[in-house]
Amino acid sequence: MTDTSTLHDHLMPTYARYPVRFVRGEGARLWDDEGHEYLDFLAGISVSSVGHCHPRVVEAIREQAGRLLHVGNLFYTEPMTRLAERLAASSLGGTVFFTNSGAEAVEAALKLARKAKTGGDIVVLHRGFHGRTFGALSATAQESKQAPFAPLVPGFRAVEPTAEAVRAAVDERTAAVLLEPVQGESGVWPLPEELLRTARECCDAVGAALLYDEIQCGLGRCGTLWAHQQSGVVPDAMTTAKALGGGLPIGALITGERLSAVLQPGDHGSTFAGGPVVAAAAHAALDVLEDPELHARVRDLGERLVARLQELPGVRAVRGRGLMVAFDIAGTDAPGIVRRALLEQRLVCNATGPETIRLLPPLVIGEAEADAAVDRLAPLLAEAAA
């Protein structure tokens, strides 16, 4: 185990970090500073979906870094404009605002909705997670995350994740409904299609915007490029980030045609967003993530992973879509099992609560790696269930 006793001296204690210091990654593998090899089934929380240090991403970064690093958003660059066209064409067909993170993309989406329908409320769902900046936090209906930072941004209305609750909440004062098609941070909860259809119908009835947060569940994670493509319920705008940069920080707000011109010069901005290097990395990542063969493999491996997890002792429920999977265990020691998996089995995963373990592997894994992850969890779960 790495001696980390002094590593946190100058870091704010905002993370409960594990006593491991990683120094190298390749594909679904990580190595620490003592040479131990790990199987990564967290992927930087759905960031390294193309795997660590994918050769295409690395080469794109090197090539672009030698040509142009930054000019700011008062000018165009070829990687940025081409990336905007590529994202719009693959999704909603409107316009794109680039950001540096998922939370920033959510902030942009909230401003978009508020400008489109001035003064309107935002309906959000319990169990949802949209980020930790003030607007995004105000949209995250989790008391433990919100309470220390009150008062929050007003105008948010949180309801249970049911079609009936959404129908009752949306009225003429509603500017938008914001939701994750698959809720990630609360333990991987795919939303029912009835809820999605109801949200669409209610928004249409009152002129509100339906906003999808696909920051974690998009970009192939669920077995299609975008999660909303599986239901056929199309949002007015959506956010993306995490896997988009292949490991570099980039996010985006993508609109459909109706909202494509709502934000005008001076309404919003970001100094670094969509810079040449991160945009070049995003193109390389998309070259991998847009592949329909990858999507089919993600669906197949997801089914295999779910089936094998259901056979393990102490597993009470398994939820997921594609390679976005979580399972509940008997008892409340999911964090302890995750820690032991890391330190004893060299498996990286995480707990989203006292009873829930989440798996978000790189999408480029194969059957052997999916099986290996389950095999490493099995003895820990058996011991916990005994």
* Main β-sheet, spatial strand arrangement: 4-12-11-10-7-5-6
- Mean pLDDT figure: 96
Task: Name the poorly predicted regions.
Answer: none
The major pleated sheet works out as:
7 strands, mixed
From the N-terminal CA to the C-terminal CA, the straight-line distance is 27 Å
Query: What would CATH call the architecture of one domain?
Result: 3-Layer(aba) Sandwich
**What's the helix-strand series?**
EEEHHHEHEHHEHEEEHEEEHHEEHEEEH
The amount of helix comes to 25-40%
What name does the CATH topology of one domain carry?
Aspartate Aminotransferase, domain 2
Q: In terms of structural class, how would the helical and strand content be classed?
A: alpha/beta
CATH homologous superfamily of one domain, by name?
A: Type I PLP-dependent aspartate aminotransferase-like (Major domain)
* Count of alpha/pi helices: 12
- Molecular shape: globular
Q: What percentage of the residues does DSSP assign to strands (E)?
A: 15-25%
So what's the CATH class of one domain? Answer: Alpha Beta
Write down the Rg: 21 Å
Number of strands: 17
How would you portray this structure in words?
This protein has 386 residues and is an alpha/beta fold. The chain has a domain at 55-289: Aspartate Aminotransferase, domain 2, CATH 3.40.640.10. The chain is built from twelve helices and 17 strands. The chain has helices at 43-46, 55-65, 78-90, 102-116, 134-138, 143-146, 163-169, 193-206, 276-289, 292-310, 334-345, 367-385; strands spanning 22-26, 29-32, 37-40, 93-99, 121-125, 156-159, 174-179, 182-183, 189-190, 209-213, 237-240, 251-256, 315-321, 324-329, 347-348, 350-353, 356-359. Strands 4-12-11-10-7-5-6 form a seven-stranded mixed sheet. A four-stranded mixed sheet has the order 1-2-3-15. The chain has a four-stranded antiparallel sheet with strand order 13-14-17-16, covered by helices on one side. A hairpin with a 2-residue loop joins strand 1 and strand 2 (29-32). Helix 3 (78-90) packs parallel to helix 9, helix 10 packs parallel to helix 12 and helix 11 (334-345) crosses helix 12. The longest helix is centred in the C-terminal third of the chain and has 19 residues, at 292-310. The chain starts with 21 loop residues before the first strand and ends with a helix. The model has no long low-confidence stretch (mean pLDDT 96).
